[in-house]
Amino acid sequence: MNKLEQVIYELCANRVVFKSLGEIATITRGGSFQKKDYCETGVPCIHYGQIYTQYSLFAKRTFSYIGTEVANKQKMANPNDIIMAVTSENIEDVCKCVAWLGKDKIAVSGHTAIIHHSQNPKYLTYFFHSNMFLQQKKKIAHGTKVIEVTPDKLKNIKIPVPPLPVQAEVVRILDNFTQLTAELTAELTARKKQYEYYRDELLNFNDNTSTVMLGDVGDVTKLAGFEFTSHVKYRDEGEIIALRGLNVKEGKLDLSSVKYIDGSNFEKLNRSKLQKGDMLLTYVGTIGQVAVIDEDDRFYLAPNVARIRFDTKVINPEFMRFYFQTSHFFNKQINKFLNSSSMKNLTMENIRKFSVPIPSMKEQNRLVKLLQHFDKLCNDISEGLPAEIAARQKQYEYYRDKLLTFKELKQED
């Protein structure tokens, strides 16, 4: 019998009371401040969007502040309260939350639920990220483009509520898992910074390397939006993919969220068909992201992404992919040509004017081989640190769900 089993046996005879969230907590909506209200110093605050992008499970410090006058009109979270984002673009992310473990009250934005309780805040936060909660969340979430869970619906969520010493032991075990993963992630972050520095140094050419305008060595084009709206029907399943800007990320194709083309008039989309070696560049929204197509007959180019098809006798597309990711290229080329309208973007004409280095093919191939090796160590999920982190994460999720599974103590018991 391990320590957790012993504590459960001694304190609750192997059975745990299940309660609704409304029985153990009060749930209120967040306030109304916006990002434009941020200031350098003032009252600490959490905006709901930051829960998805900047916070992990627990926090003792905030990333942002608002002025006292604005804060006086806001809803506040107390120490140990849980702040939950109740709107999202998908069912998996909605209800992501952070336990506030700081010493002072903080302001909380709208699109949130503030959960005030008397339980172990870490225990509840782990539960709110468990599979048991996910299955219940699916039943109360609503919406299509925006998924929402209302505080009133949250009150009905059933939670195993063991005695506080049991909660503390569950937290201790799960904290160990998260700490190990955090240490590996920190090491991976350091390696990525080292790789980026090495890449930038390798691709920072001197004046002896000849340069040309991008348009002289590559055909730069974009797809007009009307072509897709006229001839393409998007599907959630299929084989042929229409790549959008969100699929081009950090030098690679991100196919975690894609739209398929079915029943389309492909003949009218010929100029949008991508082939192996084509480089994609996002020119609006998140500008400057690149990726290279690695197979034929699978991808078409959707709006808001430029296609660059190189003369492969002169350019190795992989070399240019690495070069476009360097900080000096972004600062000297992309920032130089950014359109200064309200929606910043790059025109095809300006992209063609990018000045790019042209070392010999032998040198390009040598640099690509070196950088692919280091890139794989830092980013390939199938090996190295990324693979170990992924394995640890799966192990943590397994034990988290296992530890939060209790035999329910029924009324008749």
Keywords:
single chain; 413 residues; alpha+beta; Adenine-n6-DNA-methyltransferase TaqI, Chain A, domain 2; 5-stranded mixed sheet; 15 helices; 28 strands
Q: How would you portray this structure in words?
A:
The chain is of the alpha+beta class and 413 residues long. It folds into three domains: 1-16 and 163-190 and 363-407, no CATH class; 19-161, Adenine-n6-DNA-methyltransferase TaqI, Chain A, domain 2 (Alpha-Beta Complex), CATH 3.90.220.20; 210-358, Adenine-n6-DNA-methyltransferase TaqI, Chain A, domain 2 (Alpha-Beta Complex). 38% of the residues lie in helices and 22% in strands. Strand 20 and strand 21 (252-253) form a beta hairpin.
Helix count from the secondary structure assignment: 15
Quaternary class: single chain
- Helices and strands: which structural class? alpha+beta
Give the proportion of residues in helices. Answer: 25-40%
Total E-strand runs: 28
CATH architecture of the largest domain: Alpha-Beta Complex
Q: Mean pLDDT, rounded to whole units?
A: 88
- Integer tally of domains: 3
User: At the first level of CATH, what is the class of the largest domain?
Assistant: Alpha Beta
Query: Segments where pLDDT lies below 50 for 5+ residues?
Result: none
- Overall geometry: elongated
Distance between the termini: 24 Å
Portion of residues in beta strands equals 15-25%
Q: Any idea what the radius of gyration is?
A: 26 Å
CATH superfamily of the largest domain: DNA methylase specificity domains
- Walk across the major sheet and give the strand order: 3-13-9-11-6
